[in-house]
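To: structure desk
From: M.T.
Subject: fold request, one chain
Message: Could you run this one when you get a chance? Sequence is below, nothing fancy, just the single chain.
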Amino acid sequence: MVLCFLSVTLQLARRSSSPLGRQLCSASANKPVLTLFTKKPCPLCDEAKEVLEPYKGRFILQEVDITLPENSAWYDKYKYDIPVFHLNGKFLMKHHVDIQKFEDKLTKLELQNDGSQ
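Reply: Done. Structure tokens follow.
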């Protein structure tokens, strides 16, 4: 599974003069970003990622470890709720994957992206 830490990686890629940086930016620019707020260990997070496996080519997965010091605000917010998912920066679901909700929102974003090209 490809993990892309967009908050830093894509910002750097967009500013990059290297071919790899520009390629990373253009390859992922149109895919929705699914952010998973997690910690180690998290068996429910592992289960959720397995459920999402068939969709992995349609989004970029960004994992945020809420136990890291720089993520303390997320820890305070989600410490009792992981896994928590945001899609393109907006809350989507928590505790488990609601596959119908996920697929509906993902399809809607894909249609929006297709229309804007």
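Reply (cont.): The chain has a mean pLDDT of 83. Let me know if you need anything else for the meeting.
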